[in-house]
Amino acid sequence: MITKENFYHSPIKNLPFLDNLIFYLKLVLFIVAFALLITLFVLLSKIIPPIRKWLPVLFHKMLLWLLSVELEIVGKTDQSKKSNLFISNHLSYLDIPILGSKFPMRFVAKHEVESWPIFGFLAKKGRSIFIKRNKTDSYNQKNKILDVLSSGEKVFIFPEGTTSDGNRVLKFKSSSFSSVEKQNFKIQPIVILYSDLNGIPINRWLRPLIAWYGDMDLKPHLSKLVGLTSIRAILIYLEPVNTKNFENRKDLSNYLEGRIREVYSGALSKKLAK
Predict the structure, then answer these.
(1) Backbone φ and ψ of 107, nearest 5°
(2) Cβ of 61: how many Cβ atoms within 10 Å?
(3) In angstroms, how far apart are the furthest CA atoms of the chain?
(4) φ and ψ at residue 212, rounded to 5 degrees
(5) Which residues 6+ apart lie within 8 Å of 143 measured at CB?
(6) The predicted structure's pLDDT at residue 154
(7) What share of the chain is helix, strand, coil (3-state, %, to 5)?
(8) Helix (H, G, I), strand (E, B), or coil: what is residue 247?
């Protein structure tokens, strides 16, 4: 007897030989291109400063090409160019190349990521801002992010603080907004939604192939992800907000959490109703 869960997974597991061959050919090209990018970074980043900002964007675009990720953009993106801080819900490590493929941004990551193999190296080359999530160091972390924002660079934060299972948006941590409390910065809220895998609409049973949360092991999850022939993601750009219009960071956090949760839940409901 085939259970419902196995039924939904079966179209993903058995990939044709040609699809596997295409992926490995793309992987070889990706590795060669990545080596060239690292070489350019080492040789030219100090001579031509913009290279440090734009090479991570190019790397993210290459990664999306390798994984056959198709992006759909919804909403007004022109306003986002004037924003300082970007936020979104958080589902997977795949969120970072998707969100980082648009223009240069510095992602805020927990301090532990810096020592992770491969991911830590990439995060450092991508100029991530590493913070220690404890009360004793909160003042330094706040100032670190504020300094980057004040320098004119764009910063990306996942206010949930961790990834969700994709069935809901988790409670936002108001401390994520401590650096912009009572400041004059624009925040661009974004909703990220994964809609299809291998041409199959994502449902509750397929969502764990994308969402990485809880105590999931990274290696087996990543091996399943790279075995997909196509992934479709939707970025929904909401109306930017100005931090000076909020009394404190809790009000700001609650407002942004409510907007993102409302739009994400609505988008899920529409997708499931199709």
Answers:
(1) -85, 140
(2) 15
(3) 64
(4) -120, 110
(5) 179
(6) 94
(7) 50, 15, 35
(8) coil
> Which H helix or E strand runs over 99?
helix 95-100
Contact 73, 235 (CB under 8 A): yes
What is the SS3 assignment for 172? coil
Element (DSSP H or E) covering residue 149: helix 138-150
C-alpha to C-alpha distance for 115 and 136, rounded to whole angstroms: 21
Q: Are strands 85-88 and 129-131 parallel, antiparallel or unpaired?
A: unpaired
Q: Where are the beta strands (DSSP E) in 98-224?
A: 106-110, 129-131, 155-157, 186-197, 200-201
Q: Which of 144, 161, 162, 66 is nearest to 106 (CA)?
A: 144
- What number is the average pLDDT over the span 47-71? 91
Rounded-to-integer distance, Cα 171 and Cα 261, Å? 9
Banded model confidence at residue 121, pLDDT cuts 50, 70, 90: confident
Candidates 232, 238, 240, 237; CA nearest to 271 is 232
* Residue type at position 146: L
Model confidence pLDDT, tens digit, residues 142-191:
889 999 999 999 999 999 999 999 999 999 999 999 999 999 999 999 99
Beta strands in 57-214 (DSSP E): 69-74, 85-88, 106-110, 129-131, 155-157, 186-197, 200-201
The pTM assigned to this predicted structure is 0.88
CB neighbour list of residue 117: distance below 8 Å, 6 or more residues apart? none
Q: What is the DSSP letter of 201?
A: E
pLDDT, one tens digit per residue, over 210-261 is 998 888 888 888 888 888 889 999 999 999 999 999 999 999 999 999 999 9
d(CA 128, CA 110): 10
